[in-house]
Design a protein that fits this description.
Structural class of chain A: alpha+beta
Strand content of chain A: 25-35%
Oligomer: homodimer
Largest sheet of chain A: 7 strands, mixed
CATH class of the largest domain in chain A: Alpha Beta
CATH architecture of the largest domain in chain A: 2-Layer Sandwich
Shape of chain A: globular
Number of domains of chain A: 2
Number of strands of chain A: 12
Helix content of chain A: 25-40%
């Protein structure tokens, strides 16, 4: 086998009370990627879309992730990667993560699955480091493992896959840019202990609710005292979108990643459609362009085709 | 039925990364309590032990909890409560909570279980308010529901019972006094966001580990960056007890309640016994008197006899 094609999914991280640890994978959108063995011991990137991402493997997230894998695998050949992105860069639904993960999962198949999923997460995090300046696994973990994942620790890397009931996400992506540096600078360095306690009580309950399939508890647990209040000012109409989504039947939701996307979880596909309509009606009046995605939470991460 | 006897268990709260929300019930020690209907519309307390606890129902935790229940029930009779405590007051394993919970659970049986468990937690919290100055459910929730409980919110009261695998606790109670006010004053008001994130990642993982019955993950998740570092200086030989317990095979543990008791969780009864031996050997050299309790985590809270 000299060529592998994969579909690599969008992911939502910083799930409400699970800032910096909790994420999930969407069924779609997914990037299309083809990875081929090449004789030269290097990485070649071919971008098949119009996003103007770098072809230089040292500046491309898929490139640096593959280089990390190659460095560990100690192989004398290389990989060519053809990427057709459907997840817009900067959307806050794990676009860079999808590229990094798709590349290493596909390359690993060409190495007869030599590496474990956790090792692949480690390689893919090199892409995140290039994209955001920090090694974090919030998006790459669900992108590779699928479903809901909790990053218990980055060093050492410890990823917990969570059981969960059927759930649907509606994600609105307003076409505005939020700089990662700005989203980070707006966060408090110190937080009141009592707010931290409320956050961890909610996250513990959220995990229990997923395990029990208790949608009402899930809904009550989706409350964030710390990050959402700080960051929501960066997203036009955040409060209104949230209120309209809850009124339309969403269980809860918040900022996806560091924004600008907003996600809402629903118990059924029908409810997620009602949320989509509510989001659409509200954002149509803003003059800001936007996309809306409706997807089930997908137990499967990067998929082979 | 005019008389009910119950055994009300010791409980561990502030379980490592679950400060102010996570607790569990022990099989023992348990207080013995008998509650009787009396014609007079009042509460009468009879203490059958040597702890010198107040007989005045307004100053006794069982008394105020029963008064809260009576106030809501709007009944024209009262209750007499006979209490034989086996859980030493001030031990940090929920002594006041055992008294309050035993009283209201027994009285509720005499009212044909008119109130739900969550309502009983609310009444029992009045006892906690008397004992510590704050309405909190960390001990009363596991005392009434049994097993592991997570208090998601106090107002409104929202309690989550957690699935869990067989587990054993070894608890050492050094016979020293820690004032609740001192244990509270030593806590930081503000905490670094990055430490809070580590705590909630660990609590989320702890809950997932309980649900999965994954003892290794449970062990890795028992890490507290925030409360233990602040409070451990109040407990002689805390670090040494923890290190010796882990070396003896404990999964992890920490301060029980606000101390001075230290608890350790183990996968098997044999391991919990090894931990008991290690604690005993270590504390025997301190000159401080102590008790050690070994108990399974009990799925049952207050028990009728």
């Amino acid at each position: 086998m000299d060529e592998v094609k994969v579909l690599s999914p969008a992911t939502v991280s910083n799930v409400v009370c699970g800032f910096d640890c909790l994420g999930f994978a969407l069924e779609g959108p997914r990037d299309e990627m083809t990875v081929r063995k090449i004789d030269e011991p290097l990485v070649r990137i071919i971008n098949r879309d119009d996003y103007g991402l770098p072809d230089d493997p040292a500046k491309n997230v898929a490139g640096v992730a593959l280089r990390a894998l190659i460095g560990t695998a100690q192989i004398d050949f290389g990989f060519e990667v053809e990427i057709t992105k459907h997840i817009k860069p900067g959307s806050g639904i794990g676009s860079s993560s999808a590229s990094s993960c798709g590349a290493v999962v596909a390359a690993n198949r060409l190495l007869n699955d030599r590496f474990s999923k956790i090792e692949l997460v480690d390689f893919a995090m090199e892409g995140e480091k290039l994209a955001s300046g920090a090694k974090h696994a919030d998006n790459v973990a669900p992108c590779i493992f699928g479903g809901f994942t909790l990053v218990r620790s980055v060093e050492p890397l410890d990823i917990v896959t969570l059981d969960f009931p059927p759930l649907f996400a509606t994600v609105i992506h307003p076409q505005i840019e939020i700089k990662t540096s700005e989203a980070r600078a707006i966060l408090p360095q110190m937080v009141p202990l009592k707010d931290a306690v409320r956050n961890w009580s909610n996250l513990g309950s959220f995990v229990a609710a997923l395990a029990k399939g208790d949608h009402e508890l899930l809904s009550r647990s989706m409350d964030d005292m710390i990050v959402e209040p700080a960051r929501k000012s960066l997203i036009p109409k955040f409060d209104e979108v949230k209120a309209a989504s809850l009124a339309a039947g969403a269980l809860g939701g918040g900022i996806s990643g560091s924004g600008p996307s907003i996600f809402m979880l629903s118990k059924t596909h029908d409810a997620a459609e009602m949320v989509e309509t509510a989001m659409h009606d509200l954002y149509s009046k803003t003059g800001i362009e936007f996309n809306i995605y409706l997807s089930k939470i997908c137990p499967e991460g990067v998929r082979f085709i």
